Amino acid sequence: MLWFGKQADPKKADLRDRIQPAELRISLDPEICAGKLGVLIEQMGERGGPEEFVGALRAKHELFARVLEPSALGELSQQGLAAVLETVFTARRRLAPAWRNMDHKALLAAIRELLYGPAPLLERMRAFADQFAPAGEKAKRAAWDVGAEMLHFRAPEQYPLMTRWVWDTNTQSGALREFIKANDTLRDIPLDDRPETFEGARSALAERLASQGFYRDVVYMVDLLLAQAYSDYLRSMSSGMSMLAADFGAKDDPLELVTKMLGIDPARRGGQSRLKAEAE
Predict the structure, then answer these.
(1) pLDDT at 230 over 50
(2) Which residues pair with 2 in a beta bridge?
């Protein structure tokens, strides 16, 4: 599979899922992208540079690749599943009760079908989320995010990040909206939830990164740029840092929301799990 002109390792890619980038019906503005990238690079420079954050994302990939490998998946313990869920910020609180209450073998089977099943990718993603519909709509939406992250971080070159915070067709919100010029004047954004659309957006952002001289670790730099855009959105929508502190624990660290959205924020003190027994 070709991705930005590079031949992907067939050992790391399921060649049944060849995601061709769709041509976007709306442009992701180069100037907006350059501005957000500049802020991101400056902020990361105060914390060891991009390498520190790229390294954290690569470590997350290595975890997912190891525990979700086909030969390892059948032996994955509840603790291993919890380690995966722990890294998905938008889902770990909402999905944890349903995740624990679901039959372990059934959950592993659902994950295997999502990652390696023969059905088209979008059908598999929707079917995985539907497994949690009995637990409520919030759990179902959270399951979509978990499924999207398992796909992406198991094989980051093959699958774009397709979480709801990147783009949510139901609410017409997400990081992608923040790259569209005059987006606050648009009632409808012509983006959908197809993998091809997410891949088209990722390709567009990769081109913007290349125009700024970034050619290494592009898959992770795109993730960081998306998280920066969504962090900007959250801050603009809040009435002040008090709201962000209540909902996200953000304080004075400008990158705290970025690392939280990507699930690479530091572990809680004392090693306590952030998974909740009851949905909040």
Answers:
(1) yes
(2) 7
- The residues near 169 (Cβ < 8 Å, ≥ 6 apart) are 191, 192, 193
What pLDDT shows up at residue 12? 45
Residue 206 has pLDDT above 90, yes or no: yes
The token pair that represents 140 in the structure block: 């179902």
Token digits of residue 66: 């190891």
Least confident span in 16-25, 29-38, 195-204: 16-25
pLDDT of 279: 39
Assess whether pLDDT exceeds 70 at residue 60: yes
DSSP the chain: -EETTEEPPGGGS-TT---PPPPPSS---HHHHHHHHHHHHHHHHTTT-HHHHHHHHHHHHHHHHHHTSHHHHTT--HHHHHHHHHT-TTTHHHHHHHHHHS-HHHHHHHHHHHHH-SS-HHHHHHHHHHTTGGG-HHHHHHHHHHHHHHHHHHSTTTS----TTT-BTTTTBSGGGGGSTTGGG-S-----S-HHHHHHHHHHHHHHHHHTT--SSHHHHHHHHHHHHHHHHHHHHSSSHHHHHHHH---S-TTHHHHHHTT-SPPPGGG-----SS--
Return the minimum-mean-pLDDT range out of 24-38, 124-138, 159-173, 177-191: 177-191
